[in-house]
Amino acid sequence: MFKLKGEGRIKFHLGCDFERDPDGTLFFTPRKFIQKMNDTYKRLFGELPKEYASPLPKGDHPELDDSELLGPDEQSMYLSLIGSLQWLVTLGRFDVQQAVVTMSQFRPAPRKG
Question: Are 89 and 100 in contact (CB under 8 A)?
């Protein structure tokens, strides 16, 4: 037999807040997960990430970047951020999917640029 932690209606699970519309329809939103990602980013880099209308700037070609490779600690941070962004896409933020997929290609050897 398993002991359940929570009772009643679901409120939070796997990074998602669960809420109900005025008509009672259940929906989820990754609001707390996004806030946690922003807090982590600020802790790591001393500022919040910049806001963009589109995740990647027009004409951006990260595959052409020849800047210095990241060191082991920086690479670990990069991998952690990419993993969080991949989970965010899984939670329904499809608007950032193309940028996440593009930047995920560089996991084996990310660069500073």
Answer: yes
